[in-house]
Design goal:
The complex is a heterodimer of chains A (about 130) and B (about 180). Chain A has about 130 residues and is mainly alpha-helical. Helices cover about 45% and strands about 0% of the residues of chain A. The longest helix of chain A is centred in the middle third of the chain and has 36 residues. By secondary structure, chain B is mostly helical. Chain B has two domains: about 90 residues, Rna Polymerase Sigma Factor, Chain: A, CATH 1.10.1740; about 80 residues, Winged helix-like DNA-binding domain superfamily/Winged helix DNA-binding domain (Arc Repressor Mutant, subunit A), CATH 1.10.10.10. The longest helix of chain B has about 35 residues. Chain B is elongated, with a radius of gyration of 19 Å. The chains are: A mainly alpha (about 130), B mainly alpha (about 180). At the A-B interface, helix 1 and helix 2 of A face helix 1, helix 2, helix 5 and helix 6 of B.
Chain lengths: ~130, ~180
């Protein structure tokens, strides 16, 4: 496009957008300021909400990690009633729920030489009985 | 103390924006009118563009060239609105506004306006930015978020179509 054509086009544009043809229009500055302030407030609120959501997500994820929950923290590292490392059976103490005056478990009767022995709730190895 | 500083900063920011908006809104409205062909819609476009400009005023002011930024927002708002409306509404034939103007100028205006409104909005935006705002291919490409190659091709196609439309419209007007 030549310079002349460009100038013609600009003149044509100027004729189209002639101010004389425009109806009287009020200023939009006040409305723009009000609208712009609203946009900024909304953006700030969205940013704050997003930051909160990220923090909440982080906390939730951290709590959900294995070994990070309250339950996991209160539990000891090795369970007391776990299987023994050796094949020799070990007697674990009687559970506190069983009162001393309660009925004698039948299993203790089977074992000779230990009539008053409390029952063992823990697992036994197969060669013990 | 910091609250007071924030309040003062806000007041300065608003005053600067108001000065700019009062000085430039007529020009912006004219550009908007070239894009949409309706003064009332042009007024709405100008208001939306200024609203977005005020929301980003601090950054825009720091970056400089506020005027170019305002025109970029205006063009993008126009294209976005047109795109959104395009699938919501059926296009109706635009009725040119009857305004008091000298006959020769009025005819030229009507012919040119009709031809311009026949163009697809993208082509219109390219032509307005390139030949009315006098922007470079690169500036226009950045404003419209397209490549310079697209601006060149749309500009050439738009001009070709505009010439053809103007030719046929002028022929109609002369034939009457």
């Amino acid at each position: 496009m030549s310079e002349r054509d460009a100038a013609d086009l600009r003149d044509a544009f100027a004729a189209v957008a002639d101010d004389a043809t425009a109806p009287p229009m009020p200023s939009v500055t006040d409305a723009a300021v009000a609208g712009g302030t609203r946009i900024r407030r909304r953006r700030a609120a969205a940013a704050a909400g997003g930051a909160l959501a990220v923090v909440a997500l982080g906390v939730t994820l951290a709590a959900g990690l294995p070994g990070m929950g309250a339950e996991e923290r209160s539990r000891p590292a090795t369970p007391p009633s776990g299987p023994p490392a050796s094949s020799t059976p070990t007697e674990s103490p009687a559970p506190s729920e069983v009162p001393s005056w309660g009925p004698t478990p039948t299993r203790s009767v089977d074992r000779p030489g230990s009539p008053a022995e409390p029952s063992n709730e823990g697992p036994r190895s197969s060669d013990s009985g | 103390m910091s609250r007071r500083a924030g309040w003062v900063r806000e007041a300065v920011r608003e005053r600067e924006f108001r000065e700019f908006a009062e000085a430039r809104q007529a020009d912006l409205r004219r550009s908007a009118y070239l894009l949409c062909g309706d003064w009332h819609q042009a007024q709405d476009l100008t208001q939306t563009a200024l609203m977005k400009l005020y929301a980003a005023w601090g950054r825009v002011r720091r970056d400089g060239n506020v005027d170019a930024y305002a025109r970029t927002i205006l063009t993008r708002v126009f294209i976005d609105q047109y795109r959104r409306r395009a699938w919501r509404e059926e296009l109706v034939e635009a009725v040119p506004e009857a305004q008091a103007a000298p006959p020769a100028t009025r005819e030229l205006r009507l012919v040119m306006q009709s031809a311009l409104m026949e163009l697809p909005p993208r082509y219109r935006a390219v032509l307005v930015l390139r030949y009315w705002e006098d922007w470079s291919v690169e500036q226009t490409a950045e404003a419209l978020r397209v490549t310079p190659g697209t601006v060149k091709s749309q500009s050439a196609r738009g001009l070709r179509r505009l010439r053809r439309l103007l030719g046929s419209l002028a022929h109609e007007v002369n034939g009457r």
